[in-house]
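Re: that chain you flagged

S.,

Sorry for the slow reply, it's been a week of failed gels. I finally had a moment to sit down with the sequence you sent. For the record, here it is as I used it:
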Amino acid sequence: MLRLKTTARLLQTTAHPDDEDGGMLTLESRGKGVNVTLLTLTRGEGGQNKIGSNLFDVLGVVRTLELLASDRYYGVEQRFTRAADFGYSKSPEETFQKWQGHDVALGDMVRVIRTSRPDVLVARFSGTSRDGHGHHQASAMLTKEAFRAAADPKRFPEQVAEGLQPWQAKKLYVGNVCGFGASTCPAENYTVKMNTGQQDPQLGMSYVQFAMQGLKHQLSQGAGGWSVEPGDRFTYYKLVESVLPRTTDKDGDEKDFFDGIDSSLPGLASRLGAEEAKVPFLRPALAEIAKEVNQADASIDKDPSRAATPLLVALRLLDDVTDRLEHSQLIEPAKSDLLTILRDKQQQCEVAVNLALNASLRADVVATKGPGAGIPPEPGALTIVSPTQKFTVVAKFHNGSKFPMEVQNVSMEAPPGWIKNIYKGQTGAISPREDYYANFLLQVPSKVSYSRPYWHRREPETESVNTVDDPRYATLPFQPALLHVSLEYLMVAKAAGLNLLGHEIKRGSTEGGRISIPVTVPFLDETGHEQRRTLAVAPAFSVMLEPGTQTIRVEGDPGCNVKVGVSYNLSAPAKGTLHLEVPPNWRVEPAQLPVEFHQRGEKQEFQFKVFPAGLKEGRAEMRAVLDAGGSTYSEGYTVVTREDLDAFYYYQPAIQRVSIVDVKVPAGLRVGYVMGAGDDIPTVLSQLGMNVALIPAEKLGNEDLSRYGTIVLGIRAYDTHKEVAANNKRLLDFVSAGGTLIAQYNTGVGDFNGGRFTPYPAQLSRARVSVEEAPVEILAPEDSVFHFPNAITPRDFDGWVQERGLYFMDQWDGHFKPLLASHDPGEQPQQGGLLRAQYGKGTYIYAGYAFFRQLPAGVPGAIRLYVNLLSAGHEGSGQ
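Prediction finished late last night. Pasting the structure tokens below so you have them in one place:
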């Protein structure tokens, strides 16, 4: 009802997931009914994953799903641009250089503005150095450009040619005017001060607390444990541009973003100026709609069902005025502006009618065992369908109202080429608390688009702009659901008729509502709770080389094992052959393998032995190809999901990218690896032929550490496992006895420094080198880490990806020796990224350089240096 009563529209811009001002968004959307869109420039694909090893584009899919889960709490629509998060940037200049200038992201921002047509733009950041991250600064700078560019038909004219009309937002605000988390802010720094800590009686908590419940879904950002205490919590924004007459008071303040903007329904007519004469029906119709909405709102507290009749009248009026406007002679962009808002009002009114009448619709894909089999566990649910497959959807409409209803029409909306047969349920009245069913038998076309991201990067480690494969979906989080069921129903007046709030539905007359939902698939999760997933389309076979990267030595073993995983999505048995495509002169045994599948959901693994030939340092590829049923399959997908998230599908070609590295590895060295948040370093080391064993953090207290020559603490090990901190003395005792311990970066600076985990005093900081090409100086060329077992030269720092390193030490005791120095442009050299100290008989190394990115990317120099670090302290020891 709040949304029906206002036409206010707001767009906030941010750089990454978790940047958003959730408290403000929730206050505006849920507290005031404002139509809110959140435009997040990137999907956060270049960030650190605090709960796993997924990085780059698959992390972008994870964070998109996480942000959508948060958005459901904020009550906002979500949009993105093609700009990719390429990691931490210290300047907007670097950011724009990586994003191919301003126009890629700016064009997408203009598209969103022209589509959503907001009254106000609200940048989360200020566009100044106060924002820190270069992406943050760039997002606000672009917002300022977009404020005017969206209104200029000469900017991005291809959008106007598509039918997107220019749009001038009325006001522009910037945030971060006093620094994030500021409890006070000088009055001259802001125009609007909003208390997001005020309580909402329907939410049962404050707006910022409710928003925090949503933010907790962003687990990959480490948000799971965040909370907000009750009490005032202010957010501040400054008005920096406006096309309106003065909207501030004598002190230069506003009470709200929409001061000076008429956001009432009748106020829409005032936007037309002289054009209003062309549509004399508009203002009276809008006033009548507003009256019906107010009447419905007044009745909700007593009995929500009593709001149904005025809402149905309002819906009929909205349908009529929208139709008349579509056929009017109004000029553009005035017509598009009004129709955008009124179509939103139609949808909002439909939702309100259904809620008032407790009318609901579900459209479920039937389990493979038939409609009467009950809800199956996930493996038995038909969450994915494939070309030529037949399946059934059952639509169930529930009349939860006090009044009889009739279904007027029910239909399935599907892409072209889908075969649809409908078997409708009963005719006649549906009594209160009764159901109506309709069955749809569908068949997937032989040629169909799969449910996959509509954007991609061929080289995620080096590309910073996404390519959009289907422009129809540009700026959307994902493409919309494939199938929707729509239903129209009537409230039927029989016998004495109905009379609600003075609106009489005479005997034999009708008032109708409508409802549309995506087709979903119910299943039981591992705990037995019902979950739902939007139906997806995927190929009959998914083919994946596991893992997706392989690192081999120039002078390594004569052969390497390659595993191919194949899963099958159809019910009928199938046969085929599987083979590998490899570089010239490489040999594969066997040349091909027969495959045979008997049932849907079956997964098999196949092993090949590959014998490379003529190796020299560089890159190569191996591809798996499956021939079956007259078709060729050479890509696979993984289901990206979590119990608190929706699901989507990340596709990769069935390629294993091979890095051929000229590296020597020490004979006999046993390495123990304590995994932190998750990385792929142990996998790469094993591929090189090193003896690596994973040590579970919970076993550190009992593990015989003397079995290992070197122990490595994975990234953020102290952050993620309390057992690592609890057993820190055991780890240092291991060093003192002659072992080598390598500690990699952690983000919990305060906890790390307070724990005093290093053998001698050292201070962890947030210092980093974000430019991957930044110069690196070898400070101690005599140290063995630059000689054994591999000679390290300046060339070994070529070809690094995303960043040099992060969370460097900024202070250390004289026992530590800094080994490298590096710095971003315009900064002083930082020497705290790689430190070595002798402790007792052993060696302690702090490594803040981003080996967790370099080794999986197959960067040769980083691999050689890392092997040398593992070997430190074992020169000539036989290990």
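What I noticed first: The radius of gyration is 31 Å.

Talk soon,
D.
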